[in-house]
Amino acid sequence: MSAIATTFATGHVGLNVTDLERSVAFYQRVFGWSVRGRGDGYAFLGDDARLVLTLWEQASGTFGTRTPGLHHLSFEVETVADVQAAGARVREEGLRLYHDGTVPHGEGASSGGVFFEDPDGIRLEVFTGAGVHGEAPTGTAPTCGFF
């Protein structure tokens, strides 16, 4: 069986959150996105060119790693400096960076990034495809699998 298309790109991602205002503020401060639309219990966030994220206030509790669904959400940026800027913004928010900052992926390429959680515990990654060197924190295992 062949793929239905030769290239795929995520259109946008919808996340359930517990506090819409808190989450909107977090994603604006860390990623720099603006609110592109709002309604009762939801907000659309994106940049000047596209919608990236829809937040839905329809959850309670915290993100669970033991149930089927999202493992983590990853966003690619152009440069190591962009990754480091995202890490600095996460620290400004008072949130923990897993692996203590920018780290190479364990898959052997020069890609790497930062790993953290949003206010609801949803696991996030900001990475770049090249320019991150050094030892991966988990040896040969996927770096994103251990947070």
Automatic annotation (TrEMBL):
Tree of life domain: Bacteria
GO molecular-function terms, A-Z: dioxygenase activity
Residue ranges crossing the lipid bilayer per the database entry: none
InterPro entries referenced in this protein's UniProt entry, alphabetically: Fosfomycin_Res_Enzymes, Glyas_Bleomycin-R_OHBP_Dase, Glyas_Fos-R_dOase_dom, VOC_core
UniProt keyword annotation of Oxidoreductase present: yes
Keyword vocabulary terms for this entry: Dioxygenase, Oxidoreductase
Residues of the signal peptide: none
Residue span, VOC domain: 9-129
PROSITE patterns membership: VOC (PS51819)
Protein name: Glyoxalase/bleomycin resistance protein/dioxygenase superfamily protein
